[in-house]
């Protein structure tokens, strides 16, 4: 049986330990809190201080930076990037290769399409068809 963790050196030369999440085998840094019913797929990285709620689904190749908050039943498609301190509301859907900036806020139930960029600090809400609403 192989080890259930990986040590990775960051840009500052510090070694961070990541454990493999039971649902999906994605890598979860020490200090992140991921609900047992959440799925973090292989190839995804969840950094320290992140909180991922029940039923959330984080796709392959997703990078969730420090202190981001992912609400319940959120779906993040493969290769998306969630910036430092960003917050994704309950039931929101983030598309493939979408970039959510530092400190950005995505409202609960929002539908963000593929290849979108949400700027640092931006607040986004959509209707159920994905059309942006006034902030």
What does the model show?
The protein has no helices and 19 strands. The model has no long low-confidence stretch (mean pLDDT 92). It is mainly β and 135 residues long. The strands form 3 sheets. An 8-stranded mixed β-sheet has the order 1-2-3-6-9-12-15-18, with no helix packed on it. It has a 6-stranded parallel β-sheet with strand order 4-7-10-13-16-19, with no helix packed on it. It has a 5-stranded parallel β-sheet with strand order 5-8-11-14-17, with no helix packed on it. The chain has a single domain (5-124), classed as Hexapeptide repeat proteins (UDP N-Acetylglucosamine Acyltransferase, domain 1).
